[in-house]
Amino acid sequence: MKSLLQELIRHELVDVVGEEHVIVDASAREDFATDYSWAAKYLRLRDLPMPAPNVVVRPSSHDEVVKIVRIASTHRLPIVAKGGGSGTQGGVLALYGGIGLDLRRMNRILEIDEVSLCVTAEAGIAGTALEEAVSARGLTLAHYPGSMLLDPTLGGFLAARGSGVVSTKYGKAEDIVMALRAAVPPGKTFRTHPVPNHATGPSLLGAFVGSEGTLGVITEATMRLDPLPEARRFLGFAFDDVFAGLRAGRDVMAARWRPAAMRLYDDAGTRDLASVLGLDVQGSLMVIMCDGDARLADLEAEAIAAICTRRGARELGETAGRTWWDGRYKVYKAGVAPEPPLLFGTTDTVCRFKDIEALYRAKKETIERGFARYAARYTAHFSHWYPWGTMVYDRFYVDQPPQEPREAIALHESIWDAAVRVNLRYGGTVNEHHGIGVKLGRFVREQYGEEAFSVVQDVKDAIDPAGIMNPGKLGFGPPR
Question: What is the number of other CB atoms lying within 10 angstroms of the CB of residue 450?
Answer without folding.
Answer: 8
